[in-house]
Design brief:
The protein is an alpha+beta fold. The protein contains 25 helices and 20 strands. The strands form six sheets. The chain has a six-stranded antiparallel sheet with strand order 12-13-14-15-17-16, covered by helices on one side.
Length: 696
């Protein structure tokens, strides 16, 4: 094809490509790509400034030890107390289940008179309450609740949702004009926590009930997290009362998020316009220009969606248009890839001219090549050739071009480190390469130049994760815990040599041990022999016993923190003290201490920890090493916490053939819910594990 037709060819290819993307992303396969819209909305909505209802609280009955009648009676007691306390309104967002033919003596007077009571439509209480409204939680296909209906047609009558019905009765505030428009749904963002009042405190005669005067009180039988009914875009698990309170707060504070009809038109128009821009303005530009333009456009799209959401409280989904534009940009970068061949040809011609002694044509061809070490080398040869031909001014011109193009020389390794974002030094340690990454930072292989010793350097972005007083506290705790970990000297514990801070990073220099994290052996297809798993966990228990005797608790025992060298059969525990170093609730990114599925019940409850917590985590680790799965699994953190704190683990002997029942007994004791019922020490647990290994 002629060079003249190349731009037209590229535009035709780009037009076909973006048209295909439009059809795929907005056609029959739209459900596969709508996740892009959702992810971008969730990212922005989770950070939307919100505030809860004023003078509002939630009272939750714990139904664990109550039958249906007792639960209903408890509702009656609470309603009586609230009405006597002159609350402004009572919301029964999730009333107890009542049979259709059940008699409700006295409930008509309790619900229909005095203080207004609100209950869901089509519930027995809904017919008796002051006002009712529907509650219809319909999460998206990914399980996240992003929208809530405002109106619903029931038996030919248009009924409001429960939050809207409550807001209608609020005479203190004028309802937003947007709610009286044609909009029939609003969108959720995040939950600003509403205070909770314990039932026992409310029913206590000593409680000052005057504090409830004029308050809005939600009554349910769904404790926080445990009774969660939905997950918001922010990732928060909320009960029906909490989501009702959040929606009511949005309505009362005029912060409801809508998506008007014209927004839908913009969402359909945006990908078309972006496709045209990609075809007309990106094709045939340099890769650098394409990257800059694409980056600016993507940032602008994100800012536009944020502006609509934060300022106008409109939801506009630009995730898929963003993907289409990014796809067009990538295609444009690929299409200009043919320039590589031109560069390669220029280099070949320049080299051939240099070999033939035709130095001026060689200089002209080589200047077309992008900077590289190879081009720099041959340019240096060209300058020498000019000098040999008694043309010093041309030799100087070549050197000047190299100086303008390359600038001060730096070694290739330094360049690679800068591109990869890896610091060259931390303190006195020279970094070679990154060898690992975790939730709290990266791990580098480095060299201590004083004695030319390799070390593993764990870097934690302490200045990014903590602020103000939290940063001072984190520094003090960092050095205190590093000092404690540095006192440990055991063959199965990685030695901590040094700790410091540089370039906003807190670092810990540790013994470098080549090996494989035991996490690699939790795959059901790559399990260790049971005897080997027991022996490794016994060695771990002994090391923990030593650390506990020194007053140091690990807090994050899991397969990923146990390094195993199969050649030498050696095992090392790593990250001693690191979990404690970053235990702070004031971090910017909200680092979660430990890994929930390995945590002990007392660690989940934020109680004071002892070495028994590490033994529980070691029991979970051994369980996973033996059968390839953790003993407690759940789809959300609330259910996981419940299982860890209340349910026993299934016996491993019934999951994997060949395991003796004695292992079940050891694991049951290690993972006992109460710390005092576990092994008294790591040494005792190690003995039990080795006895099991002998049986195998």
């Amino acid at each position: 094809m002629k060079p003249l037709n190349k731009p037209k060819r590229n535009r035709l290819i780009a037009l076909s490509f973006v048209s295909l993307l439009l059809i795929v992303m907005y056609g029959p396969m739209a459900q596969w790509f709508v996740a892009a819209d959702r992810v971008l909305f969730d990212l922005l909505a989770s950070r939307l400034p919100n505030k809860p209802l004023t003078n509002t609280m939630i009272v939750s009955i714990d139904p664990t030890n109550l039958n249906a009648k007792q639960t209903l009676d408890r509702y009656g007691e609470i309603l009586a107390v609230l009405k006597q306390s002159k609350v402004a309104r009572i919301v029964l967002a999730q009333p107890p289940d009542i049979a259709p033919d059940a008699n409700l003596p006295g409930w008509a007077a309790a619900l229909g008179s005095g203080n207004p009571v609100y209950a869901p439509t089509r519930h027995r209480f809904g017919d008796l309450a002051t006002r009712n409204g529907f509650i219809d939680l319909q999460p998206d296909s990914d399980g996240v609740l992003r929208r809530a209906a405002l109106w619903q047609l029931n038996d030919g009558v248009l009924s409001p949702s429960l939050p809207l019905a409550i807001s209608f009765d609020n005479s203190n505030k004028e309802l937003s004009h947007r709610l009286s428009s044609a909009e029939d749904e609003i969108f959720t963002s995040n939950y600003a926590e509403v205070p909770r009042l314990a039932v026992k405190d409310l029913l206590d005669d000593a409680f000052d009930r005057s504090l409830l005067s004029g308050a809005t009180v939600f009554v349910d039988a769904a404790p926080a997290l445990v009774g969660a009914a939905a997950m918001l875009p922010s990732g928060q698990f909320v009960t029906i009362s909490e989501i009702t309170a959040a929606l009511l707060a949005d309505i009362d504070n005029n912060r409801t998020i809508f998506s008007p009809a014209w927004i839908t038109a913009v969402e359909w128009l945006a990908p078309v316009l972006l496709s045209i821009i990609a075809v007309l303005f990106l094709i045939d530009r340099s890769r650098e220009d394409i990257l800059v333009l694409a980056g600016i456009t993507i940032v602008v799209l994100i800012l536009v969606e944020a502006l609509f959401l934060y300022v106008m409280h409109f939801r506009i989904d630009l995730g898929r248009p963003l993907l289409i534009f990014a796809g067009g940009a990538l295609l444009s970068i690929w299409l200009v890839g043919d320039a590589k061949k031109e560069v390669k040809d220029s280099f070949k011609r320049g080299s051939a001219f240099l070999a033939a002694g035709r130095l001026e044509p060689a200089f002209a061809e080589l200047r077309r090549c992008p900077p590289s070490d190879t081009v720099a080398t041959i340019m240096y040869k060209l300058s020498l050739a000019f000098e040999q031909q008694a043309k010093p001014e041309r030799a100087e011109a070549v050197l000047e071009w190299m100086k303008r193009t390359y600038g001060p020389r730096s070694d290739a390794e330094t360049g690679r480190r800068k591109v990869a974002g890896i610091p060259q030094r931390l303190g006195r340690y020279v970094i070679e390469r990154r060898i690992g990454r975790g939730a709290m930072g990266a791990v580098y292989l480095a060299t201590d130049p004083r004695i030319n010793r390799p070390v593993a350097l764990k870097a934690i972005p302490i200045e990014k994760e903590f602020e103000d007083e939290g940063l001072k506290e984190a520094r003090l705790r960092f050095y205190r815990e590093a000092e404690s970990a540095g006192r440990l000297a055991h063959p199965n514990i990685i030695t901590v040599f040094d700790a410091g801070e540089d370039k906003g990073l807190a670092y810990i220099a540790m013994e470098y041990v080549p090996g494989i994290p035991l996490k690699k052996f939790t795959d059901p297809t790559k399990l260790l022999a049971p005897k080997r798993a027991l022996e490794l966990c016994a060695a771990t228990a002994e090391a923990l016993d030593y650390a506990h005797s020194q007053g140091v608790i690990h807090r994050d025992i899991k397969p990923a923190n146990l390094i195993y060298n199969p050649k030498e059969g050696a095992l090392k525990i790593t990250d001693f003290g690191v979990a404690r170093m970053t235990d702070n609730n004031n971090t910017k990114t909200g680092i979660v201490l430990g890994t929930p599925m390995y945590m002990s019940p007392e660690q989940l409850g934020a109680e004071e920890l002892t070495g028994h917590s590490d033994l529980f985590s070691l029991g979970v680790t051994l369980y996973e090493l033996l059968v390839g799965e953790v003993p407690f699994k759940a789809t959300n953190i609330a259910v996981l916490m419940t299982k860890i704190t209340t349910e026993p683990a299934a016996p491993v002997s019934k999951i994997r053939a060949g395991l003796p029942p004695s292992i079940d007994a050891v694991l049951a004791k290690a993972m006992a819910k109460q710390p005092q019922k576990r092994f008294s020490s790591g040494a005792e647990m190690a003995i039990a594990l080795r006895n099991c290994a002998r049986v195998i």
